[in-house]
Design goal:
alpha+beta, 7-stranded antiparallel beta sheet, 2 helices, globular
Length: 113
């Protein structure tokens, strides 16, 4: 777990704009979990049965949640910051690969009401 947490920590920072956990190993899980940076807090959004459920996390809680989710059930994490997209994938055998791409524009965070 420490190696995985280190890999995620190298990509995830308080300046992260958006994170998406996807490709669950089992169909029982939500197909996608999205985190958005809203004023220093990370808001988790899970869509289930046409409803969106939100919960706020600080940076450390967000990091721990993502590590636990990748260890247990998810196989891909995409992270966007101001300059790059980081893509962390876990193979069926457990091998972790990280790719980083320069981006022209960071994804916009949704406006809060």
């Amino acid at each position: 777990m420490d190696a995985l947490k280190e890999q995620i920590g190298s990509c995830l920072s308080p300046g992260t704009v958006k994170c998406v956990l996807c490709h669950p190993a089992s169909a029982a899980r939500e197909p996608r979990i999205t985190f958005r940076n809203i004023g220093g807090l990370f808001q988790r959004e899970v869509i289930a049965d046409n409803q969106a459920f939100h919960k706020n996390f600080d940076f450390q809680q967000c990091l721990e949640f993502i590590c636990a989710a990748l260890e247990e059930d998810y196989r891909q994490l995409n992270i966007w910051d101001a300059k790059r997209e980081h893509c962390l994938r876990i193979s069926k055998k457990g091998k972790v690969s990280v790719t980083r791409k320069q981006i022209q524009q960071a994804p916009r965070a949704k406006a809060t009401a």
